[in-house]
Each structure stands twice: as C-alpha cells, then as structure tokens.
Amino acid sequence: MTDNEDLPTVSEIAGAALEFLKAQTGSEDGIYLSRLGGMLSQHFRRPTRELLGKRKLSQILKDGLGDAVRIEGSETTLAARLVTESEMTGGVVRFDPVIWAAFSRPLGLGKIRYLKATRPFTFVSDIEKLTWENPKEIREGDIADAALPKPERDREITHKIDEWCVQNNVHPSLFKYEPSSNNRPPKAASRHNILRTLVEAVPAEKRKNFSLQFDLIYELLDK
Predict the structure, then answer these.
(1) Which of 32, 65, 158, 193 has its CA 20 to 30 A from that of 168?
(2) pLDDT recorded at residue 206
(3) Cα separation of 124 and 196, whole Å?
(4) Strand, coil or helix: what is 123?
(5) Segment 76-119, tens digit of pLDDT
(6) Are the C-beta atoms of residues 11 and 122 closer than 8 Å to each other?
(7) Omega before 172 within 30 of 0, i.e. cis
(8) What pLDDT, in 10s, does the model give residues 87-99?
(9) What share of the chain is helix, strand, coil (3-state, %, to 5)?
(10) Arithmetic mean of pLDDT, 22-27
(11) Which residues contact 199 (CB under 8 A, 6 or more apart)?
C-alpha cells in the first residue's frame, strides 16, 4: 500500500479496470497491462506511477477482482481478461466480481468494509474515503474462511453473500454479474432513432439535395 491517502483504493482501481475489461467482450485476448495502466491513468487523471505507487497492477486486479480475472503472458506481454462463461464457477458467474471480492478478500480483526451496494459497485475499509451515501457494512464474520479449499470456499462465499443480503434487506439478484452491453447490437427502436437523428441533422430545405442508398438504410434498420 502507499502512504498517499489521496490515491484510489484497490477496489476503486479494480472497479474501473473491470469496466474497461467488460468493454472488451469481443476480444478473448483481453487488454495488455501496459495499455490498461494508461487507460486507468486517464480515468483517474493521474500518472500511472503515481496512481499505482508501489502496487503492481496485476496484484491490484487479483486482489480486487479475485477469480473473475485472469492474468496471462509474461513480462511486457502480460494481459488481463475476464474469465469466460465456461471457465466461471457458480459463484463467479452469479455475482459481480467486485461483490465477490468484497466477501472473499480477508478483513482484519475489528475492521469494517464499507460497500457501495448500487452499480458501479465498490468498497473501502477507511470510512474517511467514502464518496457515496448509505454505505453498507461488511464485517469479519461476513467473510469466507480463506483456509477452505477453493470449491468449498466458493460455496461459502456464495452462502455469506446470501446471508448478508437477508440481514441487510438486499435482494441477491441486485448483485448479479452483468457483462457489458457495449458490444451488443442496438435494438430496432435504437436503429430507428439513429436514422431519424441522421435525417434531422440536415436542414429541411436542403434534404431534397441528399439521398440514402438502400444498403445503408438496411444496415441502420435491419441487422
């Protein structure tokens, strides 16, 4: 950890990285860590070295996203990607990676983890770093035992989340994993809006001077 209290927390950096990784759903190769570091630098408006401090980005991703992320390659070719659906275990599939991390990362004795229970999810362990209203508390008893074998621990994490949701009157479905919709084709209504916007961008008195090819209209309306 760094001594600079103004630096984003592990969960904040991991949460921002998660959104970038979700946007790469069309690529199985993920994002090179060198490029991801630059993207995070722009997002937080800080130089990469200042943003990460003594922390390695690969470790931040592992600590913040747990089993939902894979770090692959070596040295300058290290890349991060989200696990595919076929690779995911039940718990990782079911819950958002940030939520999964909030209930799986060890928590010191007497410490409290403050969760932002609305999207985009994040959490901190320092109450002075809260930037949202109505934080939900996660205590040591809400965290799964780190000594359990992985399959058993995955089930325990899922149980802990379900139990915590009951105690805090939160429906578990609110925490479900939702891949980014950035690469999904727009719905028909959205395509009609694209065409309308295109036409309305041309002044009415000048529209007779323009024409659209049918193959372009087809691309906009029926794909």
Answers:
(1) 65
(2) 67
(3) 45
(4) strand
(5) 789 998 877 666 665 555 788 889 888 988 888 889 999 999 98
(6) yes
(7) no
(8) 666 555 578 888 9
(9) 50, 10, 40
(10) 66
(11) 207
